[in-house]
Amino acid sequence: MTREDFTVIGGGIVGLATARALVRRDRGSVRLIEKETSLAQHQSTHNSGVLHAGLQYEPGTEKARLARTGIRRMTEFCQEHGIAHEICGKLVVAKDDEELPRLGVMLERGRANGLRGLRRLTKQEASEVEPHVRCSAAILVPEEGIVDFGGVCKALEEELRHAGVEIVTGAEVQGLRRGASEWRIVSSSGEYRTRVLVNCAGLHSDRIASMAGARPPARIVPFRGEYHRLRPDREYLIRHLVYPLPEPGFPFLGVHFTRRIGGGIDAGPNAVPAFAREGYRLSTIDVRDIADAVSYPGVWRFALRHPRMVIRELGQSFDRRRFLAALQRLVPDVRVADLMPGGAGVRAQAMLPDGSFVHDFLWVDGPGAVHAINTPSPAATASLVIGEAIAERAIARLDA
């Protein structure tokens, strides 16, 4: 059982990017372990495939900074590796006059975050960009686009294997033991030794941290996002990415229209509690995950604080016509017959005990360990620079 200097737990896009950053810094040997039999099986490839530029993020936050740098680095990476991507632009709309002040705030945030080429469009100008969208005004975000994140993960994996990184799949972590100068990782495929433990476990990051003796201030609460897809003969309704203004205080972007890099238009998602941390189907139920959620005070405090949102999102999940009504507030010409079943993703949302969401990235450091507890959107877009930030923390743990 050889000992590595760094072991990354989690083979999603953030874990892969972190391992890459550690290799490029050449401060020691690197291993990556993943519980699934192949890499990038969860949030990395169950997402909208959008390159986010950081329009809506609070200026000065780590999310805003990493999104800004991250989209440019990711675009360069895709160009270098021949990964399918397209900078198609995004339209963020104020659906009525009441939303115009919020649109102005969003425009100022984007400018403060350094986005290039932002334009506020009148109703007429917006209709020239997206003829079927109804709005009072809009913001055009020309830098945003779409990408094949699965292709990004494959390119990262190839880089790591070429660099000699040991990648172990089918290795679910079952226990962690801290010694005088190393960690012992007990997994379903055997035991591993490492000087520094790097937790990039996504949907299970809080559990890995707790297993390591850390006390994360938040718990991961899974939210499933469900999509529909426009029928091919109705795809002409959408030319770019079309988003509503996000609701203040929530990390969810609202029901929107997304072009896919492989073709097609997705409509959604809603945001409903999932019955499993990997519950991509409504029928997927995990008793432990449900018990974790219902026993957490934050979940109940969130539901009591925001009952209208909970009822609305659940209604859109079970009633297609309610889902359609949300879409029609953006594109009135969409009909229920235009919608086909789409995919779903599960968002690992960190929630505090008082029921509030953790909006920014959350790292927890410990003896010989770094835990990435909350790596929300734009985690995929900014994964290369997020990996570098985590790698710097891990190297500091090595030297401590």
Q: In total, how many beta strands?
A: 20
Query: What would the principal axes of the Cα set say about the shape?
Result: globular
Give the DSSP E fraction (strand runs of 2 or more residues): 25-35%
Number of domains: 3
Count of alpha and pi helical runs: 11
Q: Report the uncertain regions.
A: none
User: Average pLDDT across residues?
Assistant: 93
Radius of gyration (Å): 21 Å
The largest pleated sheet is described as: 8 strands, mixed
Fraction of helical residues: 25-40%
CATH fold node name of the largest domain = FAD/NAD(P)-binding domain
Going by helix content, strand content and strand pairing, the class is alpha+beta
Q: Termini separation (Å)?
A: 24 Å
CATH architecture of the largest domain: 3-Layer(bba) Sandwich
Instruction: Identify the CATH class of the largest domain.
Output: Alpha Beta
Assign the CATH superfamily of the largest domain: FAD/NAD(P)-binding domain
Task: Write a structural description.
The chain has 400 residues and is α+β, with helices and mostly antiparallel strands. The chain has three domains: 3-45 and 150-218 and 361-399, FAD/NAD(P)-binding domain, CATH 3.50.50; 90-142, no CATH class; 219-238 and 251-357, D-Amino Acid Oxidase, Chain A, domain 2 (2-Layer Sandwich), CATH 3.30.9. Helix content is 32%, strand content 26%. It has eleven helices and 20 strands. It has helices at 13-25, 62-81, 100-112, 123-129, 149-162, 205-211, 287-294, 297-305, 307-318, 320-328, 383-399, and strands at residues 3-9, 30-33, 50-51, 85-86, 90-94, 119-122, 137-141, 145-147, 166-168, 173-178, 183-187, 190-199, 219-230, 241-244, 256-259, 265-268, 272-273, 339-351, 362-366, 369-374. The strands form four sheets. Strands 1, 2, 9, 10, 11, 12, 19 and 20 form an eight-stranded mixed beta sheet that branches. Strands 13, 15, 16, 17 and 18 form a five-stranded antiparallel beta sheet that branches. The chain is globular and about 65 Å long. The two termini are 24 Å apart. The model has no long low-confidence stretch (mean pLDDT 93).
